[in-house]
UniProtKB/TrEMBL annotation, chain A:
It holds the Pfam family B9-C2. Keywords: Cell projection, Cilium biogenesis/degradation, Cytoplasm, Cytoskeleton. Component of the tectonic-like complex, a complex localized at the transition zone of primary cilia and acting as a barrier that prevents diffusion of transmembrane proteins between the cilia and plasma membranes. Required for ciliogenesis and sonic hedgehog/SHH signaling. GO terms for biological process: cilium assembly. Residues 182-204 are annotated as: Disordered. This is B9 domain-containing protein 1. Transmembrane segments: none annotated. Part of the tectonic-like complex (also named B9 complex). One of its GO terms (cellular component) is MKS complex. The gene is B9D1. InterPro entries: C2_B9-type_dom (IPR010796). It is found in: Cytoplasm, Cytoskeleton, Cilium basal body. Belongs to the B9D family. It comes from the Eukaryota.
UniProtKB/TrEMBL annotation, chain B:
One of its GO terms (cellular component) is MKS complex. This is B9 domain-containing protein 2. The gene is B9D2. Component of the tectonic-like complex, a complex localized at the transition zone of primary cilia and acting as a barrier that prevents diffusion of transmembrane proteins between the cilia and plasma membranes. Belongs to the B9D family.
Amino acid sequence: MAAASPSVFLLMVNGQVESAQFPEHDDLYCKYCFVYGQDWAPTAGLEEGISQITSKSLDARRALVWNFPIDVTFKSTNPYGWPQIVLSVYGPDVFGNDVVRGYGAVHVPFSPGRHKRTVPMFVPESTSKLQKFTSWFMGRRPEYTDPKVVAQGEGREVTRVRSQGFVTLLFNVVTKDMKKLGYDTGPPDTQGVSGPSPPQGLPT
Amino acid sequence: MNSNRRRRFHLWAMAEVHVIGQIMGATGFSESSLFCKWGVHTGAAWKLLSGVREGQTQVDTPQIGDMAYWSHPIDLHFATKGLQGWPRLHLQVWSQDSFGRCQLEGYGFCHVPSSPGTHQLDCPTWRPLGSWREQLARAFVGGGPQLLHGDAIYSGADRYRLHTAAGGTVHLELGLLLRHFDRYGVEC
């Protein structure tokens, strides 16, 4: 009975935080973490990480490259609460303080195969011009106390944000036992590229 | 634990649909600080097991390009006894100015895709035009006519009364996961 029908399926994700496009900022590092529902649990790999600090290349591309590995496996009984990867990008401001340059989140793709995702990054905006100046001067910009709120839909009605960059991620996804449990995830789209394409003029 | 077992026994008879994705953003609107109110409407045979049926995104002011990005996550788990009333996502795009006033920029709806996998959706929007007086007032002072009842957004019943103009486009990426549909001989 136990061998015949599994009750748990596995999701294995590996890949990298490849690169970023932030026209106005330089010397950035990135933190990632996974947010998932109650029915999910990580079984192997790392749930979070901090990348190196990267500067824009000196050639014409002005590319910001991290090439930072991601490798995690989840198990679950229910696709509700499918894992999302939450990214936070930080960099120094004019005075040398570490300030947030963008938050973003995207669901891990669920069809097996190779996927490229471009995630738009946004920062919370100050409520008034005075607060904007004070936060610029003191180096304490508005930021989220817990970056995981970026992965939730509730409570966003009152926030004002500014989108100012993109991060490109590459995923390889493998699932186990989803078909046996009756789930149909659709055709595996190999080399699937999705997400917004950055406006012209920025390196892809 | 007991209620889980009871719920699973009940689910044995039903097919399940998971809608997992994001409302990515919008392009083509004349204003730049935009937010979106969204909701999902289903027929009587559908039951929402987990997830929030409606919500509102953050207000985004884009610094690069003209696309406003919301990246608002959608994660819905439905159980269904029939195909009628397939879920429809309805949207209202509003703009917010520096004084905090909100103005309607467009209504739109799109059906949740019916084939499993990840889909890129572009949902066109429209806004009601009023009389020439109302249009003039909207150009100078803002405001403008709005629908009294939200169901005209996703239903065709009373649309013939409206005269509308096009708004911008809302971009969504929705992934669909189906369960047990093959048991009932449904092809999608």
